[in-house]
């Protein structure tokens, strides 16, 4: 690349960045001339990531830096290659912009609220040196903790957390330091959009190539499964009640991504006009109404929170909905009552909020089996309460790879 061309690229990138964020204009005006005079040190530009499905972040590439705009926390992250001049001179930590030197030498994660599986798929767990809780639903992160590679750190102690090059959080209200970086896959509306956050995290470790490969494989598999499910549903489209019981009230789970999963797996949820209602379990009239709706469904997914998932059994469910085992509901006679807490870590942390976010094809595969049972597929996240299926507890001894090796996504058979 000629000097002139590289200059144009750099300028274009800076202008693009400036166009996106008014605040950057002043910054760009001040920074660009100096940078153009000193020919930037050549930086190996590896593969780039481009957002296809996610709606809450965008990535822009410059010559020796990247900018990610995160609409979850409203911040821009300026990632400067450690070999660049900029990296040794520039630091931003304002309400709108933060800078990081990449590839990150090490990092920590607020594991009480944030998924670690994205980092496992990227293959960067060896650099994960701090976790805020060891109740993680990941065998290899537990293994890393048990072997001393990662240490437990106090999640509210910004001073201690500042020893890490970056501290990743997914609760944006918890931002307490210049090294805090937010990722918010849970705020996206659809399963693939959530999974694409691997690209966001990949930029911090120059793992774009890996992030692209993993996301492409997952997306291709997801779309293939979804197509197969659409075919299955031409004969019969099961009706699903995805419900939860909280503080004495039964409600329908209405998060967009759950509805998307049901549709993509070839089924249908209870009508939206009905799902807005709430049903008081101590009010017989409410329960009559609830039972009438349940009479029309084929499958129940019970997302009720359980302090101890292993103790949540068929009897618990039947008691909560006040029906007996010999009732005529088709989901009872057809034994189709499911929970999404099959894989749990210590203290009942659900892998549903971790591994299932980064590998939505596995959730889809499970749901297709739930809706169109073959008996020839072992579900990963869903367990059938009606068949008294139990939970799987995740422990460090289950980690079957070296922590320096990336976790491979599981690609389900699909023609
Ligand atoms: C930049 O990061 C790479 C990869 O971690 C490392 O090998 C290298 O020493 C770093 N270079 C500088 C100048 O910090
Ligand atoms: C993380 O990397 C930085 C920069 O290389 C270093 O100063 C710091 O000691 C490292 N922290 C841990 C916990 O390894
Ligand atoms: C964690 O850090 C906060 C703030 O520094 C402190 O108040 C709290 O006592 C610490 N908690 C533990 C368990 O050490
Ligand atoms: C759809 O189902 C029919 C049989 O029900 C089968 O012959 C056909 O191959 C299926 N198509 C796809 C794309 O799976
Ligand atoms: C549920 O119904 C009972 C009995 O009618 C009532 O005491 C209770 O306040 C209701 N709960 C809610 C959350 O409305
Ligand atoms: C629970 O079921 C029993 C037996 O069908 C019924 O008598 C009772 O009223 C129900 N309770 C509620 C709160 O619906
Ligand atoms: C119950 O299961 C059978 C066999 O899987 C199926 O043919 C039937 O349609 C199911 N009934 C309902 C109401 O879902
Ligand atoms: C079960 O699944 C395997 C692997 O997908 C397949 O080879 C086999 O034919 C299936 N068996 C039945 C009975 O569907």
UniProtKB/TrEMBL annotation:
<keyword id="KW-0732">Signal</keyword>
<protein>
    <recommendedName>
        <fullName>Fe/B12 periplasmic-binding domain-containing protein</fullName>
    </recommendedName>
</protein>
<feature type="signal peptide">
    <location>
        <begin position="1"/>
        <end position="30"/>
    </location>
</feature>
